[in-house]
Write a structure and sequence with these properties.
Blueprint lengths: L2 H11 L8 H10 L5 H5 L6 H11 L4 H6 L2 H9 L1 H4 L1 H25 L2
Helix pairs in contact: 1-2, 4-8
């Protein structure tokens, strides 16, 4: 894999991953076959910032969990008004990390 392409991907997408995942993402891209590069370029990652805003504005309705793909948890938050608002408040501090973890899962699943 061309190191320049890998560097450009890392610059453009590092905000979508946890900092401790960045080395693993870089290594995986370096080892990646050129035929899979178009798949990597078309990946859609969820913005942690957007997820945070959704959590603040509509977390009690589960909008943040629906956005990152946690449908079951979204339904649970919707039915319980965000876990009687306790779960909503917890998610205000943890949903960005959950979005980054989901992005890492998306990245890993797309390469296999």
């Amino acid at each position: 894999m061309d190191a320049n392409r890998v560097d450009m991907f890392m610059i453009a997408n590092s905000k979508y991953f946890e900092s401790h995942h960045l080395n693993a993402v870089r290594e995986k891209l370096i080892q990646l076959d050129d035929a899979k590069w178009p798949v990597v370029q078309t990946l859609q990652f969820k913005s942690p910032d957007t997820t945070q805003l959704l959590s603040i504005m509509g977390g009690q309705l589960g909008m943040d969990r629906f956005f990152i793909g946690d449908t079951g948890l979204g339904i649970a938050k919707l039915l319980t008004c965000g876990g009687f608002y306790i779960w909503t408040i917890i998610d205000w501090f943890s949903i960005s990390s959950a979005a980054r973890e989901k992005n890492m899962e998306t990245f890993q699943n797309s390469l296999y």
